[in-house]
Design a protein that fits this description.
There is one protein chain. With 171 residues, the protein is of the alpha/beta class. It has one domain: Formyl transferase, N-terminal domain (Rossmann fold, 3-Layer(aba) Sandwich). It has a seven-stranded mixed β-sheet with strand order 3-2-1-4-5-6-7, sandwiched between helices. It is globular.
């Protein structure tokens, strides 16, 4: 498959996809924050990248690159119905919780504050409703006594690095 990836931050999941999904071609990474570190990863990995905050531009870019699937890997902006409709059944998202619990921002902090004994990550189909599409696969992470947002975030990120390529490679 020809993959398009959407990033807003560090880009660790983006780079992990590049290394862990060799049967797929990552043809474009779009980022929406100018200081997004994923851009530097794309440069180092020789993958085309583009900064854009305009959904019409992003739709046009993914169409121009003829992507088969879009992977939201740390994309920190809600997409519109128009965007979802442009790529029906072709957008997946990685979210740091066991959906349907703790949608949106600060999911790990929400789980800790709620006294959960476990959290994890989910890969789900993107719909116009935030973090509400059908879950494809999840993986749990225990919340241990003495854990804090930083330690649980690190554990969830390790889980994400396993789960996302697993889902992509199964497609």
């Amino acid at each position: 498959m020809r993959l398009g990836v959407m990033c807003s931050g560090e880009g660790t999941n983006f780079e992990n996809i590049v290394h862990s999904c060799p049967k797929h071609e990552i043809v474009l990474m779009v980022y929406n924050k100018k200081k997004c570190k994923a851009r530097k990863r794309a440069e180092r990995l020789n993958i085309n990248s583009c900064y854009s905050v305009d959904e019409d531009d992003i739709i046009a870019l993914f169409n121009a690159y003829e992507v088969d699937m879009i992977v939201m890997a740390g994309w920190m902006k809600i997409v519109s119905k128009k965007f979802v409709d442009a790529f029906p059944g072709r957008i997946i998202n990685l979210h740091p919780s066991l959906l349907p619990k703790y949608k949106g921002l600060n999911a790990i902090e929400q789980a800790i504050n709620a006294g959960e004994e476990e959290t994890g990550c989910s890969v789900h189909w993107v719909t116009e409703e935030l973090d509400s599409g059908k879950v494809i696969r999840q993986q749990t992470v225990p919340i241990l006594p003495g854990d804090n947002v930083k330690t649980v975030t690190r554990a969830v990120q390790q889980c994400e690095h396993h789960l996302l390529p697993l889902v992509i490679n199964a497609m």
